[in-house]
Design a protein that fits this description.
The protein is mainly alpha-helical. Helix content is about 90%, strand content about 0%. It has a two-stranded antiparallel sheet with strand order 1-2. Helix 6 runs antiparallel to helix 7. Keywords: Membrane, Transmembrane, Transmembrane helix.
């Protein structure tokens, strides 16, 4: 039952039709004509079932879905093969029945012929006894002669019959062999003719399917390689983005350092303002005796203040522009990086390299420009301050020498005044007036010179302290050279070295 349940409904119907026709041909209509016609009918039905199964298997065969269509094709081929086998077995059963029946008839005829010869021998023996008993010698002799002739004739007849039997057996065997051979040859020819194209097409389809699988295998390998390459590129893009974040942090650190530099510059500007205030107070005190110097110093002070303000303004503008440029550059780089990561399958690698090169060049240019601007501004400020110091020293040094001479003269006046005063008492009134008048201005000049020298020494000491504090830690090799006229300043017999301005010290540190 399990064997029959494995057949499809179409296969079962074709096999039942063949079995019914086989029983019908073996039954009431069996004859020599049936033997000749039935095998062809049964074979044709089997071949029809074969073609029907193949046609049904190939009817819904989809070349784009070979794996899904193969089971249906196999089911159709199963129907085709089993129907062909059933038809061939039915045809062979009819042929074999005819052959077996023909052999049995031949054996029956052979047995019947042998029994007749025995009967004749028995009858001849009886006839001989009768003749011997009757005494009819002549008749016996004649009969004996006839019997011998008959025996010879029967011997020849038996030989002929034996040859005939052998020939019949050989002919039947050859006929059966040739019939089976012809049947198998015809079946093979029909199978070859009818199924050859189908099997060739099936073979071609299987070959194309194998070729498609090989191509799909190659494409799958390429796809895996491409996915791996995309993964490597994404890793590189991630590393580049991390590097860009680090650069952005470095930009922030540079901005903070620039803020510290601005704070230092502001402090230096405040210190310079206090220094200029002290210098202005000194100049105002000495304005009575030095009107020309006051005007020049005020002009230089205003010029220096304007230069400082301009430099400070330029420095602020430069730092503001630099900060805005850095911020815009960081924003542009981040946007460009996001865009390149979205287009990573097409051009992300080259774009990342170009972006990194462009950022590096821009940073180098920005760093160089900032360094050049800072260096230029500091050098300009230091040069202006140095020129102002040199001008102040060159203008103030002769005045100091004159004031020192006045002090020396005034120091000599008290010892010589008393004799002059005593002599004036005994002389005329007109001759005694110039002496007190002369001594009084000299004393005033001496007091004024002392005050001026004290203020000047105090200002120089404060300036030296501020300069030493601001220039602490700087390398002495990078300091601006001291002008020959400003190397020493003599006050009260001491030589006080004149130091360069804070701006020059700052410029030296920046250059280092």
């Amino acid at each position: 039952m399990d064997f029959l349940a494995a057949f499809s409904p179409l296969t079962s119907v074709v096999i039942l039709i063949i079995m019914a026709l086989t029983l019908y041909f073996h039954g009431p209509v069996y004859s020599l004509r049936t033997v000749n016609a039935a095998p062809s009918i049964l074979t044709s039905i089997g071949i029809f079932g074969t073609f029907l199964g193949v046609a049904l298997g190939l009817m819904d065969f989809d070349t784009t879905d070979i794996e899904g269509s193969v089971p249906q094709l196999i089911e159709g081929l199963k129907t085709a093969f089993w129907s062909s086998i059933a038809g061939l077995l039915a045809a062979m059963s009819i042929k074999l029945r005819h052959v077996i029946k023909h052999v049995r008839n031949y054996e029956t005829e052979t047995k019947y012929t042998g029994a007749t010869v025995d009967d004749l021998a028995t009858l001849l023996g009886d006839i001989r006894l009768v003749l011997n008993k009757s005494g009819l010698a002549d008749i016996g002799d004649n009969i004996q002669a006839g019997t011998k002739g008959l025996e010879q004739h029967l011997g020849r007849l038996e030989t002929v019959i034996s040859q005939y039997q052998e020939e019949m057996v050989s002919a039947n065997s050859n006929a059966l062999t040739s019939a089976i051979t012809e049947l198998m040859t015809s079946f093979n020819d029909k199978i070859t003719v009818q199924y050859g194209d189908n099997f060739r097409q099936l073979n071609q389809a299987v070959g194309r399917m194998v070729e498609w699988q090989e191509n799909y295998k190659g494409e799958l390998a390429k796809l895996l390689e491409q996915q791996k390459a995309n993964g490597d590129v994404l890793d590189k893009a991630t590393e580049a983005y991390q590097t860009m974040v680090q650069h952005t942090q470095a930009f922030n650190e540079v901005s903070e350092k620039l803020g510290d530099v601005m704070t230092g510059l502001q402090q230096q500007s405040n210190s310079l303002g206090s220094y200029l205030d002290s210098l202005a107070s000194l100049v105002s005190k000495a304005s009575d005796g030095l009107p020309a110097l006051e005007g020049r110093i005020m002009a230089l002070t205003e010029e220096l203040a304007g230069g400082i303000r301009e430099s400070h303004k330029q420095m602020n503008d430069l730092l503001t522009q630099t900060s805005a440029t850095i911020e815009k550059t960081v924003i542009t780089v981040n946007r460009q990086l996001v865009t390149d990561m979205e287009q990573v399958n097409s051009r992300h690698h080259d774009v990342m390299l170009q972006m990194l090169d462009r950022n590096e060049k821009q940073l180098v240019r920005m760093d160089n420009a900032m360094e050049q601007e800072l260096t230029h501004a500091l050098q300009t400020f230091g040069g202006q301050l140095t020129a102002l110091s040199e001008k102040f020293v060159s203008d103030y040094l002769p005045l100091t020498e004159k004031l020192r001479q006045v002090v020396q003269i005034s120091a000599q006046l008290p010892g010589e005044g008393r004799p002059l005063a005593g002599a004036a008492k005994g002389s005329a009134a007109g001759s005694s007036r110039p002496v007190p008048a002369t001594a009084e201005p000299q004393a005033a000049k001496s007091d004024s010179a002392k005050v001026d020298n004290t203020e000047a020494d105090k200002i120089r000491t404060d300036s030296m302290k501020v300069d030493n504090t601001r220039a602490h830690g700087a390398d002495s090799a990078v300091l601006a050279p001291v002008p020959p006229a400003a190397k020493t300043q003599e006050a009260g017999g001491d030589h006080v070295p004149l130091r360069p301005g804070r701006r020059a010290a700052r410029a030296g540190r920046n250059v280092k």
